[in-house]
Each structure stands twice: as C-alpha cells, then as structure tokens.
Write a structure and sequence with these properties.
By secondary structure, the chain is mostly helical. It has 2 domains: about 10-70, no CATH class; about 95-164. Helix content is about 50%, strand content about 5%. The protein has 6 helices and 2 strands, in the order E-E-H-H-H-H-H-H. The chain has helices spanning about 25-45, 85-90, 95-115, 120-130, 135-140, 145-164, and strands spanning about 10-15, 20-25. A two-stranded antiparallel ribbon has the order 1-2. Helix 5 crosses helix 6 (about 145-164). The protein is elongated.
Length: about 160
C-alpha cells in the first residue's frame, strides 16, 4: 500500500488500531524519538521487538507485548524465606560516619593550609575549578616550581591522614 502524497507518512495507533496521516517532519521527529527509546530499551534488555514489528512501537513500553520485565526488587522475599535480596547484597555507599569523618578531615586540611599559606582561599578555589598548578602559580605571582614544591610538601605531610 503506497502513500498517495509524497510529503505525508502514516503512524499506526495500537489502541484504536488505526493509521494516521502526518507530515514528513512530524513523522521524522516521532520516528527518531521512538527509535531512540526502543534502542535504549533493547540495549538494557527490556525490549525484544523484532525488526518486522517496529511499526508497532509507540513508545509506551510498560504496556507493550515485547516488553521484558527484568527489574528485580531487593525487598522481595527469597524463595527459601530467609530474608530478602537486600539482606545479602553489599552496599558500597559510604556510611554517615565515614562521610562525617571525611568532612572533618577536609576541614582540618583546609585549616592547616590557611595557617601555612595566606593565599589558601584563592588556591582552594582555583584547585576546585580544575586549574593547573602552573596557572595557579602564575595567578598568585609565584614561580611555578616553588609553588609546586610547596603544594607537594603539604600533600606529603598530610598524606598519612588521607591513607587512613
């Protein structure tokens, strides 16, 4: 079945089981959107739509016949009844105590840097912006080698705190 108008395309609606004529621009926009969605879902293993059924794809994946339900809840009880999956999977996120210790260490290091260098606030701000040691030394009006040596000495002095 061919389109009579070269500048229009057809989109199938699964709910009403009808075809709709749309402009070439609208079809291209819709097709790019649904193709990107379908490819993303296929990459994650959530869509098993074959090429000859792509025309059925409307982007409503939860209700689609080709949708693979691969999500597993960690709160779902185990088959043997001994807890849930969440009880046996290790959580790699830091604990609140570790976060507080890291924050305290950072505050201590900033305090020590302020004691040793009057330009500490500028140095910290520039380091956070990702600026190189050479540019920081240039900004502060110091020699690059001297500044790099001072920063290395500071890091070496407190490296033992960071390693623990």
């Amino acid at each position: 079945m061919q389109n009579k108008d070269k500048h229009s395309k057809r989109i199938y609606d699964k709910i009403t089981r009808t075809w709709f004529e749309v402009s070439e621009e609208k079809y291209r926009e819709y097709d790019r959107w649904r193709t990107a969605l379908r490819k993303r879902m296929q990459y994650h293993g959530e869509c098993s739509c074959t090429r000859n059924k792509w025309w059925l794809c409307d982007g409503v994946c939860q209700d689609c016949e080709f949708h693979n339900h691969t999500t597993i809840s960690l709160d779902e009880p185990l088959p043997d009844g001994n807890g849930t999956r969440g009880d046996y999977i290790q959580d790699d996120n830091p604990t609140p105590e570790e976060l507080m210790a890291d924050r305290d260490l950072l505050e201590y290091l900033i305090m020590r840097l302020r004691e040793t260098d009057p330009d500490a606030n500028r140095i910290i701000r520039l380091l956070q912006d990702g600026i190189s040691d050479r540019k920081i030394a240039e900004t502060l009006g110091r020699k690059q080698r001297t500044f790099s040596k001072e920063l290395k000495d500071f890091r070496d002095m407190y490296r033992r705190l960071l390693d623990n």
